[in-house]
Predict the structure.
Amino acid sequence: MAAIHLKDIAKTYSNGKTVIEDLNLEIKDRSFTVLLGPSGCGKTTALRMIAGLEEVSAGQLYIGDQNVTKTEPGERGLAMVFQNYAIYPHMTVRRNIEFGLKNMKYLKDEIEKRIKQVVGMVGLQEYVNAKPSTLSGGQRQRIALARAISKKPEVFLMDEPLSNLDAKLRNQMRSELIDLHRSLKSTFVFVTHDQIEAMTMATDIVIFNYGRIMQQGTPKEVYENPANLFVATFIGDPGMNTIAFPGIGTVGFRPQKVKLTMPADFQGAKVAGMVITKEMLGMDHLYHVATGLGTIIMKSEADLSVDEAVQLYISEQDLYFFDSNEQRTADAMLIDSVLNTVKAADGVTMTKHHLAGSVYG
Ligand SMILES: Nc1ncnc2c1ncn2[C@@H]1O[C@H](COP(=O)(O)OP(=O)(O)OP(=O)(O)O)[C@@H](O)[C@H]1O
Ligand SMILES: [Mg+2]
């Protein structure tokens, strides 16, 4: 059992800076949990507290049913890969891996078997006798991963372990980590500020901002059902369009849901606009469109030109509403007021809508 439970955890660094005030987090046994959030929000701090490399200032930490708040890092049954991979530069790849296993007092045959297995996994077979100083940043990072994997820990903590890899290798390592998670059957806690990494690998995502949990859920849940504006704009590539009406609320919709032709049985807002920028994204294009509601970002396969006049269709079922505290809301009065304001904007026509129970013509 290797669920991890952070209970009322606070962290104030010795310089007096409080990074985490009151964190309550349950990481499920055998989950692949990704801690996601912007730079400086406290992800590494949280991970280092779980590892025991950083003391908690208040609260209790459990791994399984053990209270490990005061337990030494080496006694917590976990392995960690750091943001700045800590490998020994003077030791060969083989020695770097062997070192940890010898400390764990494994037999020679077992050590050999594991080294062979993990260097294969990270694609470093040819380099077992090389020194890290002769390897690239990505290869060094893979040594750190291999060394951690070789310990077959119950809990595997990773702090941006893919950040120094090129795009192709990063993709490959993502799939490797998903497979690894399946085969090791241990709990993975993976820190990143890259939401694509999070969305592709996680069984559970915990979205942080300023040391607080903004939402925890499956990738699908946080994408389809963001609990607040922060998550709505942080998740997605790019995040949601949001149009704020001060004192009333905010309406949001995904760039992928903005259509150029009227969908069947359309109910929603038809918005006149003009393309102002165009960006090529492989199959899709990303457009900025100037409208009476402000700039709307649209992701579409259609090939438009800058300065082209367009009609945008945004279906009511694709709209999300947020209150003045930036929380998701289903409040009918608020939705009505927001939609009335949308409807009053230049170049907008609204078909009947049913969201708030009233009818517009
Ligand atoms: N040893 C320390 N002493 C004082 N403040 C620290 C210390 N380590 C981190 N901090 C501060 O704590 C905050 C959170 O840092 P942390 O490294 O946990 O962020 P992060 O979410 O991992 O960011 P990144 O994505 O950039 O790695 C930052 O404001 C940082 O300046
Ligand atoms: Mg960090």
Observations:
- The CA atoms of residues 284 and 301 lie 4 Å apart.
- DSSP finds nine helices and 18 strands in the chain.
